[in-house]
Amino acid sequence: MFLIPVEYDVEPFKARKETQYWYLEEGIKIGYTKVETDISEKKEPIIYLHGGPGGKITDEIIKVLAPLSRQGHDVYFYDQIGSGHSTRLNNIAQYSVERHREDLKRIVSIIGVDKITLIGHSWGACLAINYLQKYPETVNKVILTGPGPILPINRNMSNEIPPDSLNLLEPAFSNKEGNEKIYNWRSKTILKWAYLFNSKLATDKEVDDFFTYLNEELNKSTDCDFKNQKKYEGGGGYYSHIMTVKRIFRFAYQL
User: I need a surface site. Which of 72, 122, 155, 182 has the fewest CB within 10 A?
Assistant: First the structure.
């Protein structure tokens, strides 16, 4: 029966012991990790924006970017609202690009600085640009890694055949196959219900575990040897993901 809650055999989310919290408003907290510089003459802080929407900060990304603190920057890594260590919203209609952008503005105010440098990865790059458009006076530099798609997407280009000189191989596993394998009647109903009624048909725990399970499959399309792929750790936020994506595409096709 597709109305019965589902449990997924996925890696649980492991809370980071050094996590601190910003309190943006009553009942809303944002989990973050700060790598502080030991240089006396500080430069502007760096804020890293993770991908998704609905992704999270990983130990790996902290390890990679922590050395930036040696250049005189405090480096902040935070889980965006609805994911990781941060609060899941009861009203999922509040998940939007604007919400993420204004959360970032409040975070900058809490830190108490005039200028910041933003590093945005994937969806985080989209968020960085959106923030820069609204609050350019607060940004010193923007660094984008693996930026998200240019919207609206020109889907006609998907039919173009790349030249043989690129020596591209067909993926062993595709995103389409991953979605077809994982989505079932219940998960499709949860998604449709959220889009139509802006409300939860399932708990955050269930859908976040589903999101982890889905990402495990989708990540296979990025790995030539996916059979030896590591388990995907939990912590992503599904409602934050789908509702923000909904707003992204609605905005894009109004341009």
Answer: 155
